Each structure stands twice: as structure tokens, then as C-alpha cells.
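Exercise 7. Given the encoded structure of a 343-residue chain, write a plausible sequence.
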């Protein structure tokens, strides 16, 4: 409805600065597993770069215990840096969920000694601080599910699932029906989400995407959905947030049914990885680089969604906090002009 579009527009248009968080089992490995994998840039891709079979990765997951996680401390730190919204990986490509799920016990509450629901704790802490809260969900890739699309040249499906029968035929719709869609429904039903951030739409088509957008709309009409639900990423400044995803076919083309409000967001990171990484190639950007990127993005009318990768023990990465602080300090001086947006 026009009302919900207006409500979504309001906070997102004025937000400018978001914290992206990549946190999961991979955070404990820091980019390397038994001497393998650290050549690859993203530490959250360790299961692929080190070719870790599902059964072995499960053992790493079963030891995941971020005992020092403190949601209020995270939220307050973000708030103090001028951050206005937070987006955390509720399930990355490794298939492990940071929320209690009845769909799959491969989640932090049922599978680990930690047993706490990070998504619940962080959503509540963010809202207490007046921050908007959203989750990242890998709706297509799920390396733990043989049926999910497996698209990369670093490993084969059978490196992760060595016991698959020779005649195994992956069925993405079976995966969507059994895990991906019901988990998205759990997220929108059980958590106060302002935004859902889908990623890497491998083998997505309009029919599949409609199942996701409809389940989000049904439970949470005001929840923003990012364009990566169907469009691949384009690098830095890219995402259009589409409150509605209604298309019609004209000839062989699908076109939007009406003019869509378009928002720009730049998914970026304080470092060369998204997940916390200390092994192999990894570097942080300078304060100047972070401020330059931030200013370019917001002056282009967009939001800077800047990632930090918390450490396996549950604490924020101090270097990431320092770089957020540099942007926060810049905002203390210049924020007035940045936030004086069209109304
Ligand atoms: C994807 C993920 O594979 C990655 O682990 C991380 O979550 C990131 C935010 O999203 O990686 C991408 C996807 C698209 C681009 C870059 C990284 N892109 O278009 O440049």
C-alpha cells in the first residue's frame, strides 16, 4: 500500500550509514582450515576454498561458542558511530543459521554449546537503541544442501558431499520448499525485521523470487527487500530496494507494473574480507579510504552499508570499530549537511 511504501522510504532514505555484519562458524577459522584456503579473499567462503566436507564443517559448527557476544554492547557501539541500521547474516552460504529454526537443527541454538539466538538478541538490542534491523539470508546458495545450486569454480558439489550417488540430480525447488522458503518465513514471522537482504541469486527466476517476496509481504508488509533477491550484485554502489516486486510480461520481457521507488546502497567492508580474517591475504582500508567511500556513496544519494566481521569469541573486531569511529567522527562535524535531505 502507499502507506507502507512511505514508511519504508522514510527511514531508508535518511539512514545513510548501516552496519553490515558477517558472523558465523567461519569467523572462528579466520580464513584458514588445516593450512588450506587462506588464498581466497573472503573468509566466509572457507568451506569452498578449503574444500571442507559437510561432515567436517559440522564439527567446527558444533564447537561454535561466541561466549563473549553482547548484543547491547554491539548495538551501542554502532549507535555511537552514527550508524542507523544493522544487517547481519542470519544464514550465509554455509547453510548454518544464527537463529532458532524448526526447519533445520543446523542452527546456533540447537547445534552449538552457545545455545543463544543471536538474531533475537541483536534485533531487540538494536531496536532498544533506535536502530533499524535487518537480516542477510542466502536464499539460493546453501553448501550444506545438495539440492541447492552450487555455482563456483573452486570446489565441486562432491568435494563437500562426497557420498552423493552418481545419479544425484539437484532440485533447487525442493531445497526452496524444504529449507530456504520456510526459514525465510520463520525470520519474518518471529523477528521484527525492517529489511531482508537476499544474496547471490543463483538460478533465481521470477517464479521462485515471487515465492520469497510474497512470504515476506504476507507477514511483514513494511519490510524492505533488496534487489539481489533476483539481480546479481554489481560491485559497490548497486542495490535498489524494491518495496514491491510485481512484474508483467510484455513480449519476452518482464517489466515492473509501475514506477518503483529506487534507492541506492553500497555494500562495502572495512577490509578485504567480509568475515573476520587474520590468515593469508587480508588488509583493512585506511580511515581516509573509508571516509572517501562513505562521502561518495551518501552524496550520490545512497546508503553506505559497511561491513564488519566480529571475531569467533563474539566480540567486535577492534579495527573495524576504529574505522567506524573515523566515519562517526566525520559525521559529528559534517552530519548536519548530510542529513539535511529532501523532505
Ligand atoms: C556475496 C557473498 O558471496 C559474499 O560472501 C558476501 O556475503 C557479499 C556481501 O556478497 O559476494 C559478492 C556478491 C556480488 C559482488 C561482490 C561480492 N559484486 O557484485 O561485486
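Solution.
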Amino acid at each position: 500500500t502507499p502507506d507502507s511504501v512511505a514508511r519504508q522510504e522514510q527511514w531508508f532514505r535518511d539512514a545513510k550509514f548501516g552496519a553490515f555484519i558477517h558472523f558465523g562458524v567461519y569467523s572462528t577459522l579466520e580464513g584458514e582450515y588445516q593450512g588450506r584456503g587462506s588464498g581466497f579473499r573472503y573468509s566466509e567462503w572457507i568451506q569452498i576454498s578449503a574444500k571442507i566436507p559437510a561432515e567436517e564443517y559440522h564439527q567446527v559448527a558444533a564447537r561454535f561458542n561466541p561466549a563473549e557476544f553482547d548484543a547491547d554492547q554491539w548495538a551501542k557501539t554502532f549507535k555511537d558511530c552514527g550508524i542507523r541500521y544493522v544487517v547481519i547474516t542470519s544464514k550465509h552460504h554455509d547453510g548454518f543459521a544464527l537463529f532458532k529454526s524448526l526447519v533445520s537443527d543446523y542452527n546456533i541454538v540447537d547445534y552449538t554449546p552457545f545455545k543463544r539466538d543471536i538474531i533475537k538478541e541483536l534485533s531487540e538490542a538494536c531496536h532498544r537503541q533506535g536502530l533499524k534491523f535487518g537480516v542477510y539470508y542466502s536464499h539460493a546458495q546453501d553448501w550444506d544442501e545438495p539440492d541447492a545450486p552450487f555455482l563456483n569454480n573452486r570446489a565441486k558439489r562432491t568435494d563437500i558431499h562426497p557420498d552423493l550417488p552418481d545419479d544425484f540430480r539437484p532440485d533447487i525447488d525442493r531445497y526452496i520448499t524444504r529449507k530456504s522458503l520456510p526459514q525465510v518465513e520463520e525470520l519474518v514471522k518471529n523477528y521484527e525485521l525492517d529489511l531482508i537482504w537476499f544474496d547471490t541469486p543463483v538460478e533465481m527466476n521470477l517464479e521462485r523470487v515471487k515465492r520469497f517476496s510474497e512470504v515476506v509481504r504476507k507477514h511483514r508488509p513494511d519490510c524492505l527487500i533488496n534487489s539481489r533477491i533476483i539481480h546479481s550484485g554489481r560491485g559497490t554502489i548497486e542495490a535498489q530496494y524494491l518495496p514491491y516486486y510485481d512484474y508483467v510480461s510484455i513480449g519476452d520481457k518482464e517489466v515492473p507494473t509501475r514506477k518503483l521507488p529506487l534507492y541506492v546502497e553500497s555494500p562495502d567492508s572495512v577490509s578485504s574480507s567480509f568475515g573476520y580474517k587474520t590468515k593469508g591475504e587480508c588488509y583493512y582500508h585506511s580511515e581516509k579510504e573509508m571516509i572517501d567511500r562513505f562521502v561518495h556513496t551518501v552524496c550520490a544519494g545512497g546508503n553506505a552499508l559497511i561491513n564488519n566481521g566480529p571475531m569467533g569469541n563474539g566480540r567486535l573486531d577492534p579495527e573495524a570499530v576504529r574505522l567506524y569511529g573515523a566515519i562517526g567522527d566525520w559525521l559529528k562535524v559534517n552530519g548536519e549537511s548530510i542529513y539535511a535531505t529532501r523532505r
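Remark. The chain has one domain: 2-339. Students should compare their own answers with the one above.
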